[in-house]
């Protein structure tokens, strides 16, 4: 009887020990899956694809120009047009608008907007908020608010929402 009890106890102990490697492998595979999903999401953002809308968020670039409604950003010339009128913007505001138009309909993270700077100067989120506020005002004064607006996505970033 004692021999059976000992072998049963040893068998149960070995079963519980055998589960640990399996759980470790499953945990690693789940982590890899999440990393893959994150990679796919980032790739879609780089391609300007909006999975919810099932296609491109803004018109694809043609000769360096990206359009979102009547708003056209000429990235090669660093110029912005609303309809046939040019909207003069300082470099920082232009860069913010370019990132938003590139990913129209998607949330552009605060960090991405702060990182895509060409003048080499770092800015805080407070500066970013002020620039976006001025950009909103300029777009509104130029009449762009009829077909697009910059939305704040609290805790994440900004989105250029296109109106129908």
The beta-strand count equals: 10
The major pleated sheet works out as:
5 strands, antiparallel
Helix content: 40-55%
- Beta-strand portion reads 15-25%
Order of helices and strands: HEEEEEEEHEHHEE
What is the gyration radius calculated from CA atoms?
26 Å
Apparent shape: elongated
Cα(first) to Cα(last) distance is 81 Å
Strand order of the largest sheet: 3-4-5-6-7
| Low-pLDDT segments | 1-11, 49-56
Which structural category fits the helices and strands? alpha+beta
Mean pLDDT: 77
Describe this structure in words.
By secondary structure, the chain is of the alpha+beta class. Strand 5 and strand 6 (79-82) form a beta hairpin. The strands form three sheets. Strands 3-4-5-6-7 form a five-stranded antiparallel β-sheet, with helices on one face. A three-stranded antiparallel β-sheet has the order 8-10-9. The protein has four helices and ten strands; from the N terminus they run αβββββββαβααββ. The chain has helices spanning 2-46, 91-102, 110-115, 125-141, and strands spanning 49-50, 55-56, 59-62, 65-68, 71-74, 79-82, 85-87, 107-109, 148-153, 157-162. Helix 2 packs across helix 4 (125-141).
């Amino acid at each position: 009887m004692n021999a059976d009890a000992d072998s049963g106890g040893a068998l149960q102990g070995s079963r519980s020990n055998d589960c640990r490697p399996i759980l470790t492998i499953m945990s690693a595979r789940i982590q890899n899956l999440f990393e893959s999903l994150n990679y796919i999401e980032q790739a879609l953002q780089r391609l300007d694809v909006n999975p919810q809308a099932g296609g491109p968020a803004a018109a694809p670039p043609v000769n360096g120009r990206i359009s979102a409604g009547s708003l056209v950003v000429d990235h090669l010339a660093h110029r912005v047009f609303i309809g046939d009128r040019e909207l003069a913007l300082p470099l920082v505001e232009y860069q913010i608008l370019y990132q938003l138009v590139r990913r129209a309909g998607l949330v552009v993270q605060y960090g991405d907007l702060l990182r895509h700077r060409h003048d080499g100067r770092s800015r805080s989120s407070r500066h970013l908020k002020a620039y976006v506020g001025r950009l909103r005002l300029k777009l509104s004064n130029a009449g762009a608010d009829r077909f697009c607006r910059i939305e704040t996505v609290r805790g994440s970033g900004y989105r250029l929402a296109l109106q129908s």
